[in-house]
Specification:
Layout (H helix, E strand, L loop, with lengths): L4 E5 L2 H12 L6 E5 L11 E6 L2 E8 L8 E5 L3 H13 L3 E8 L7 E7 L5 E7 L4
Parallel strand pairs: 1-4, 5-8
Antiparallel strand pairs: 2-3, 3-4, 6-7, 7-8
């Protein structure tokens, strides 16, 4: 449904390091840097993340309001949720909900919630019926 998301961050190098580590257990291992001067006037520099030949998650330097976004990243297993959560905890993220089942959504909904270094809400989600 979505092709891409841009997220403004306060420290691009810190955020690239954080997301490189945290997204790897989810299979998001491709990185691409886009130089804004190659786009239309005023286009920001972008740091992209993707998988399977698609870049879909992009960081840009800008104004941050951590309360303004919640991003759910697809995981292919409960173990991948646990690994992404652990990576976030050692890479500057904050706990916002330990790994476990989210019974209020569905008894099979397994997730972990963290805040990234800018306070954005991230969720690593495994739904075994949607894999």
């Amino acid at each position: 449904m979505l092709d891409h998301v841009f997220l403004s961050v306060s420290d691009i190098d810190r955020s690239v390091a954080f997301y490189t580590t945290v997204l790897a257990p989810l299979g998001v291992t491709t990185r691409l840097d886009y130089d804004g001067k190659d786009g239309p006037p005023g286009h920001p520099d972008l740091k992209g993340f993707g998988a399977n030949g698609r870049m879909s998650f992009w960081l840009r330097l800008g104004v941050v309001d951590g309360r303004a976004a919640h991003i759910g990243f697809l995981a292919r297993s409960e173990a991948a949720v646990n690994e992404a959560y652990a990576a976030a905890m050692v890479s500057g993220g904050s706990n916002n909900g330990e790994p476990g089942f989210r019974l209020h959504y569905d008894p099979r909904y397994y997730a972990a919630n963290v805040l990234d270094p800018d306070g954005y809400s991230l969720e690593f989600v495994y739904k075994n019926w949607q894999v």
